[in-house]
Amino acid sequence: MGKTIESVTFDPSYYPAAVVSCAVFLYLYKYAGPNISSKLSPKYSSLTEADRIDWNTRFNSSLHSTFVSCMCVYSLIYDEDISNEPIWANSPMVRTSCAIVVGYMTCDVLIMTIHYKKIGEVFYFFHHGASIYAYFYVMTYGVLPYFANFRLMAEFSTPFVNQRWFLDKLKYPRTSTVFMLNGLAMTITFFFVRIAVMPTYWRRVYSVIGTEPFKRLGHISLVLVITCFILDSINIFWFYKMCHGVRKVLTIYSNKTPVPVLNHVDKEE
């Protein structure tokens, strides 16, 4: 008989990685981020307090998404076990990635809670809560490594979203070449890593539903289906806003009117 969630030992060995991740991102937010940002962009110091707080969280977000997505690509290419056994394969790399994500999102929730009046949004508490809930099980029990790794590769689009916000705060014209190129890169990347991959992801989910390994998940099977359905619904909403922005880009070239390039799109994890 194979593993069941009841038979898998509660394994907190990856918790230190989550704690270190949270501590590192808190340090980056409080000290390293502001120092680096002020040196790279003198305008950083002239921002409002709320904008500096938001800037520092996006600085963290960009570093986190770049690092984790690279780890996920490595796992996808070199870790054959997670493809052969997507539910129960034990992948230290994937579990470490999830621990880093849990630590980062915990840090982000703490910052948003402390500065709720300035940058807090209920939407992001909901998003982070759903993500932490899902990756907690992967980190703790080692289950669903393939699906967790697949979902985290979506982070490739996040730096472009943050870069758009940075350009806006630095007063780059929304009709400038750099603003429009970043906006198009953001939309294209978002489409490929979050929207276009949905059929592939859900086809793989469908292929394991009802199998013996899936049945042995017990209640954790809800993480695979419900949490990912919620996150995909959020991604579709974001992509709708981006497409609305692309339409405005096309309007610029067809009517030659100085309309904004893209609607406001907030950061996503």
From TrEMBL:
This is TLC domain-containing protein. It is a multi-pass membrane protein. The chain crosses the membrane at residues 12-29, 98-116, 122-144, 178-197, 217-240. Its main location: membrane. Residues 50-251 form the TLC domain. The keyword Ribosomal protein does not apply. Keywords: Membrane, Transmembrane, Transmembrane helix. GO terms for cellular component: endoplasmic reticulum; membrane. It comes from the Eukaryota. Coiled coil: none annotated. InterPro entries: TLC-dom, TLCD. It holds the Pfam family TRAM_LAG1_CLN8. GO terms for biological process: lipid homeostasis. It is found in: Membrane. It comes from Patella caerulea.
